[in-house]
Amino acid sequence: MKLIYDEKIIIEKYDDEHYIIYSPFNHNFLKVNEAMKALIVYIIHKRGNVDLSDIVDYFKQYDMKLMEEEVKKQIDILVEAKLFFYNRRDYIKSEVITLEDYRFPPGQEIDMVYIHPTLRCNFNCSYCYNKALAATQQELTTIQWIGIINKLKAQDINYFIFTGGEPLMRKDLFDIIKSIKDDNTRVEILSNGSLLMKQVDKLLPLVDSFVVSLDSLDIKKNGINRSEVGFNNIIRLIEYFSKTAPKKLKIRSVITKENVDTIQAFNDEIYQNYGIRCINVRFIPNNKEEISLMTEPPMPKIDTNKKYKMDMGIKKYRCGACSNIIAINPEGDIYPCQSLMLPEFKIANILDENWRIQLAESEITQKFRNIKVNNIDECKDCSYRYICGGGCPAIAYKVYGDLNHHISFFCDYLKKESNQRLRLAKFVSR
Questions:
Q1: Average pLDDT over residues 66-82
Q2: DSSP label at residue 336
Q3: What is the DSSP letter of 290?
Q4: Which of 161, 236, 334, 417 is the 20 to 30 A CA-CA neighbour of 168?
Q5: Residues facing 10 on adjacent strands
């Protein structure tokens, strides 16, 4: 028997009893026990040339008495998981399917919209990607926003993330959300938290989740990259949620040189004191000059008892810009995502009657839907390419001016993160 397989197949320890087997060329993986892992090692050692009777003898060293039929069943499991193949035709077919599946289908529908009712903000965060746009933006009225969102809902779009700027700089945010919220509509607010305490009682029943930015519990350290404004309000807000709805609040921290050594302690303190989950993201440069400000953040510890840890699943990464997400600026202009609200990426205006057609037929949309990690020379042979996808196209564009450029300064970290995702497999918070 001859088995065909990906020669770059990866075997990573999962826990004391299991391993994760991952095939990079078709992004298939399987959790196996020690015996199955030994069988895989044997097949690879024999370069796919399998003799069932020889395997039976091989497993005697593990004090396992197997029949050839049992070995064949185990091999069938590996073939069913598309980690090994009985013929090259199926092997090649699996890769073709993977390449097709990696792209969003042409008819992919938008299901999430980033709403920017304002780009004004009472903070001046050093790493904000929208602050340069705030002074130039006009803002749609309350009635216009309500009409826009209801028009989107009529298109079966029911997930709205209110961001900015600081969305609560709009005095009418509650009125907008109250008018559009129903049982089928999911609403999320991304906020710096400094103004939220005044309206939290009204907003809490209407909003499904809040993400509040905070980098440190020390007002001076938090103020280095953000602001000291409203710090005590943010702490009172966290205390409020800890007593009323801890699962509705997430604390989002940007890892920088100032907090990289204390971020784990910060996560621990937020969870232990308030029972609230933290989301840690790495500082992302907006241009080449900011690359030097990046730091190497610690990888998440493998600790299944920590509820604040992120889901480290190994879903295939695909940029959702123009495919399942769009962003709308304060004037109603449509962009691929919240990170690329730049003039050259304007697709249409949501007030246009034919905005949906413009979105579908836009050259910008086609550019994003045709982004392929296999077209990046430095990525196409990497074992982790389908896990990281080559990184965020918005970063590539802002730093190099090319959506498809290899993000060299981010590459090592993305590989480490991808390996961590693999080792943690489908890590689900308890």
A1: 90
A2: S
A3: G
A4: 334
A5: 22
